[in-house]
Amino acid sequence: MRGLVIAALVLRGILMFMEPTLSDDVYRYLWEGKVAWSGENPYLHAPSSVIFDAWGADPIRSMVAHPEVSAIYPPLAIWLFGLLGTLSYSPGIIQLTMGLADVGVVYLLARLLARRGRTIGPAWLYALHPLGAVETAGSGHMEALGLLCVLAAVDAWDQRRGGSAWAVLGMWIKLLPGVMIVRVWRGRPWLLVGAMLVGCASLWPFVGAGAQLWTGMDTYARHWSFNGALFPLFEFVFGAYARPVAMAVGVFVVFRAMRVHLDPERIALWAGGAFVLLSPTVHPWYVLWAWVPALLCGVRSWTVLATLIPLSYAALASYDLGASSWEEPWWPPLFSTLPFLVALLWESVHHATQPGPWGPGAIRRPRRSVSRTEPDTSTLFQR
């Protein structure tokens, strides 16, 4: 496993020193962290707000895309950005942190696979595949931190220690890990309460924004659209009601997964998969939310999407820096989503008997204190 970690470090170490050219999210991270650390409210005041003009020229602020939109990210993430910004007010510090978090994802993925009697080939695949490395160490996206919490929750649950505190902390960084809280609960309420208090403490300085706490998220949910997988079909069928219908379907999928599955990684896969397939906006780094738990579950088809999703970066060829906009070509969603759906359907219908494309053998599950009393009737994301 030492060689695996070293390989992951080397690849991400190279990318940490490169300018993030595929995404400008890192500049918003730094700016909103600075705003919070300075005592202002990033949920109340968007980067373009005139109150910041008195702060003088700031190259980071000038590079924030959609400066009219206030903060979208959960509060614990914003405080983390602020802390990192005090160490170094530059993209490099974010890239370093997210790159190291992604190495942690590689390590925990290998550890969980080994405990299940599986080859750690999927961890090697993730360590050397460009998607995770480029989107975290290269672009500074914080998916690695959220996924680190997801895997830490599964790891704790495997050892009968419960992982609800990790799931709660992940929820305060990125919302998706919150779907695992109920499943990874094993008592120890003080840990859960402690994690909730940390999150509430991070939110408290911002509650003065009132309903405007949700303005940025509302703008994202209502108006943004890019590279959707199945969402264009919802638009075709439901028109103006496509977004609420897709959201309702996603909620149904997640609740059904929570009812059917005993393994928290499967719930994470269903939640991440629903998010990727149903969202109007699917940036390449979003796919990590489904791909990482899929590697743990032995669902091979998600690797197809992880490999093809960077085709969406073709839109950058038409990027207008002044307007922070681009002309989305028609073909990337088709050429990335269609092969993936075919692979997913084939895998579901044929009930694949290998845990991954790297070797045969059935998955051996660790002993659990909870007996399986319900049959698992779902096959879509099953191996």
Strand content: under 5%
Shape: globular
* Cα-to-Cα separation, first versus last residue: 25 Å
Note poorly predicted spans: 355-383
Question: Overall mean pLDDT score?
Answer: 88
Largest sheet composition: none
Number of strands: 0
Class of secondary structure makeup: mainly alpha
Which sequence of SSEs, written as H and E, runs from N to C?
HHHHHHHHHHHHHHHHH
**C-alpha-based Rg, rounded:** 20 Å
Residues in helices, as a percent range = 55-70%
Number of helices: 17
Describe this structure in words.
The protein has helices at 2-16, 25-37, 59-62, 75-87, 91-115, 121-128, 130-138, 143-158, 164-173, 189-203, 215-223, 231-238, 242-260, 264-278, 288-297, 302-308, 331-350. The protein is 56% helix and 0% strand. With 383 residues, the protein is mainly alpha-helical. The model is unreliable at 355-383 (pLDDT under 50). It is built from 17 helices and no strands. The chain folds into two domains: 1-207, no CATH class; 225-364 and 375-383, no CATH class.
Summarize the structure.
This protein has 383 residues and is mainly alpha-helical. The protein has helices at residues 2-16, 25-37, 59-62, 75-87, 91-115, 121-128, 130-138, 143-158, 164-173, 189-203, 215-223, 231-238, 242-260, 264-278, 288-297, 302-308, 331-350. α1 (2-16) packs parallel to α6, α1 (2-16) packs across α7 and α2 (25-37) packs across α4.
Topology overview:
Layout: H1 2-16, H2 25-37, H3 59-62, H4 75-87, H5 91-115, H6 121-128, H7 130-138, H8 143-158, H9 164-173, H10 189-203, H11 215-223, H12 231-238, H13 242-260, H14 264-278, H15 288-297, H16 302-308, H17 331-350
Helix pairs in contact: 1-5, 1-6, 1-7, 2-4, 5-6, 5-7, 5-8, 8-9, 8-15, 9-10, 12-13, 13-14, 14-15, 15-16, 16-17
